[in-house]
Amino acid sequence: MLNLKPKKSALKENEGVAQPEIISASSVAQIQSLRKKIPTAEELVDGILNGDKTALSRSITLVESTNPSHLERANEVIKSCLPHANKSVRIGITGVPGVGKSTFIEAFGKYLTFLGKKVAVLAVDPSSSISHGSILGDKTRMEELVKDENAYIRPSASGESLGGVARKTRESIILCEACGFDTILIETVGVGQSETAVHSMVDFFLLLNLAGAGDELQGIKRGIVEMADAIIINKADGDNIKRARLAKIEYNRALHLFPMKSSGWSPKVTTCSALTNEGIDDVWETILSYFTLTQENGYFETKRKDQNQYWLLETINDQLKTNFYNHPDVQKLLEENKKAVQNSEISPFAAAQHLLNVYQNNKPNK
Questions:
Q1: pLDDT > 50? residue 129
Q2: CA-CA distance, 24 to 26, in Å (whole number)?
Q3: Cα-flanking dihedrals φ and ψ of residue 273, to 5°?
Q4: Helix axes 71-81, 53-64, angle to 10 degrees
Q5: Do residues 261 and 224 touch, judged by C-beta distance below 8 A?
Q6: How many angstroms separate the CA atoms of 6 and 169, rounded?
Q7: pLDDT exceeds cutoff 90 at 257
Q8: Helix, strand, coil tally for the chain in percent (to 5)
Q9: C-alpha to C-alpha distance for 188 and 106, rounded to whole angstroms
């Protein structure tokens, strides 16, 4: 007869032992409550005016946000910080990729903090046109400056912005100035001849270059060289010193082809080595000479007023673009019109006009 009784298994599972509580429930609750807490505009402003770098970083993140719900709070922060801004010098630093911008800024920033300056670095990193991501590795490169109590480094992605800067760099400058930073360094993406936007938001425009990167024909090509207030031949060290000196001569010849600047300033060319700190003090002396001249002849104040006017128009353009693409009717029709254009069913110009008409006729009245 078949035995259907269950066989006793050789495997045996003992009853588990309860693990002791090693985390305080009250601590967990406190951490969770802090994570969920969203600071008000007043709290952020108070933190900025008290020199709190965390509040400054959170405010810049808020200002850079494309979420429409963040706009009102961001505007409150900027409005409250404006009376405490405009008390710094703004220096734009650009150059081709690989010229050593980050290394130069770290050496220059450390020199300025040694002089007692409070330095804020707004580093703009290029965004990929494919993945739309950005490395944001400037803090890693500036490992000494990032530890300096009198320095602040904020990397931002350029996104879809042209001109070598991020979309909200101007507003970030205001917040840094309100936080007490008296020297603002803006490192651009380094795209070459098209970095015009940064020139419209700084007091002094510094172009870093390498030996062998140009000759007197650069004076004819204009572009970014024409906007520079000083050209620094970087990496003038080791076997490269002789080539750097020759490059300095070539660029001095090129600058003679430019007309006199409206500031009355003649751009200077000098050499330096960010690696060995050679020539860093000469760069600062050049910048101080520029500020002395432009403050005496009134150009400094005139340029600041022109900057404000420029950013009025840029802000209008940016907000109109945001409003257009966030409009629900435009969002519904945009993909449909894209496909129609791809299939040659409608011209790009007619499709654009149709979408603009939809936006114009259906935008809310305020």
A1: no
A2: 5
A3: -130, 110
A4: 130
A5: no
A6: 75
A7: no
A8: 50, 10, 40
A9: 15
